[in-house]
Amino acid sequence: MVVLSKQTTEQYAYIRHCNKTSAFSSTGIIPVVDLSKPEAKTLIVKACEEFGFFKVINHGVPMEAISKLESEAINFFSLPNNQKEKAGPPNPFGYGNKKIGENGDVGWVEYLLLKNNQDYNSMRLSVFGQTTDKFRNVLNDYICAVRKMGCEILELMAEGLNIEEKNVFSKLLMDKESDSLFRLNHYPPCPEMALDNKNGENLVGFGEHTDPQIISLLRSNNTSGLQICLKDRSWVSVPPDYNSFFINVGDSLQLSNVQYLGLVGDPQVMTNGRFRSVRHRVLANGFDSRLSMIYFGGPPLSEKIAPLPCLMKENEESLYKEFTWFEYKKSAYASRLADNRLGHFEIFSAS
Ligand SMILES: C=C1C[C@]23C[C@@]1(O)CC[C@H]2[C@@]12CC[C@H](O)[C@@](C)(C(=O)O1)[C@H]2[C@@H]3C(=O)O
Ligand SMILES: O=C(O)CCC(=O)C(=O)O
Ligand SMILES: [Fe+2]
């Protein structure tokens, strides 16, 4: 018999449930980009315009780096709660459980959120005890390989957009001041759900949101749960694939407004609305653990986030007030997960 602690039962009760039928399966819908093929650059641009999301194969990240980090993550999340909590509370960095951000969002998820190199080297990781150095090395190897893949994707994107300066986006990730983050998410089984799930519901693991940065590079184990929102506002489930990476366009990466005015969606800034920052969420099924690792590529804090002049048509006006990544981030972190964060920065905002 499973005996539930009062804490587990209470936490389960306040986390939202979601009907299983509210998303359809995405077989054949999600674009797949083979990075080794010459058409990659065209497919990337198309996928960013249509979905703000795509899957990448032949990504060049060594499987060894992936599986080493995955086993470190499994070890970490298997520690007793009082051990893991030594790496918390998340402020916003560190270990967090159920609570996402500072503004009241909750989900069926525990996580370790780390900021750039400073944090990988911080005391927080001392929770790994004698294996701290090993964890740090494994994490560094993974991050270097994933950032390299991210830069390759951003360079192909620039080429696909016919931008002369090939590293216009990738240089932001390579800058030593780049404000990038790394996150391990664990969606544990939910004993309460296993006992009482007459309606075949899912738990909201990570509520719907867009990522504020430029690009998010995600991989997970083979447990499903990730869903993306299409332009028509319907949700599709993304079949998991532990051999591939999934790429999200973040709020900071947007192009030309003209063809997107009037469309329902969440357009992005540097492309002045031509790319979509994809709204996504994770539903936990309660039975199988999902483990995901995400690198959020962000610009330096002082970087101006504005449409690239080379992408603006003659007389095209910017959709957004000019702001720095610091200003945007501050505003994003004061918002709730599901909020339309770019709304505050739109010039012709409806509100
Ligand atoms: C509710 C929140 C959590 C978040 C900061 C925010 O106020 C709104 C954006 C959230 C998000 C989503 C993408 C990343 O997971 C994240 C680390 C980020 O940069 O923005 C999270 C923030 C978080 O979990 O602290
Ligand atoms: O865990 C996942 O698969 C996605 C989580 C996510 O969207 C995030 O951390 O921003
Ligand atoms: Fe996200």
**Cα distance spanning the termini:** 53 Å
CATH topology: Jelly Rolls
What is the number of domains?
Answer: 1
Low-confidence parts, pLDDT < 50 over ≥5 residues? 255-265
Quaternary state of the chains: single chain
**What is the C-alpha radius of gyration, as a whole number of Å?**
20 Å
Bin the strand percentage. Answer: 15-25%
From the spread of the alpha carbons, the general shape counts as: globular
Instruction: Tell me about the largest β-sheet.
Output: 8 strands, mixed
Q: How many individual β-strands?
A: 16
Q: How are the strands of the biggest sheet laid out side by side?
A: 3-4-12-9-14-7-6-5
The unique ligands bound to this protein are:
the ligand C=C1C[C@]23C[C@@]1(O)CC[C@H]2[C@@]12CC[C@H](O)[C@@](C)(C(=O)O1)[C@H]2[C@@H]3C(=O)O, 2-oxoglutaric acid, fe (ii) ion
Order of helices and strands: HEEEHEHHEEHHHEHEEEEEEEEEH
Number of helices: 9
Give the integer mean of the pLDDT values: 84
Q: Helix fraction?
A: 25-40%
**Briefly, what CATH class?**
Mainly Beta
CATH homology group:
B-lactam Antibiotic, Isopenicillin N Synthase, Chain
User: What CATH architecture would you give?
Assistant: Sandwich
- Helical/strand content category: alpha+beta
InterPro entries: DIOX_N, IPNS-like_FE2OG_OXY, IPNS-like_sf, Iron_ascorbate_oxido_reductase, Oxoglu/Fe-dep_dioxygenase_dom
Catalytic activity: gibberellin A1 + 2-oxoglutarate + O2 = gibberellin A8 + succinate + CO2
GO molecular function, one term: gibberellin 2-beta-dioxygenase activity
Protein name: gibberellin 2beta-dioxygenase
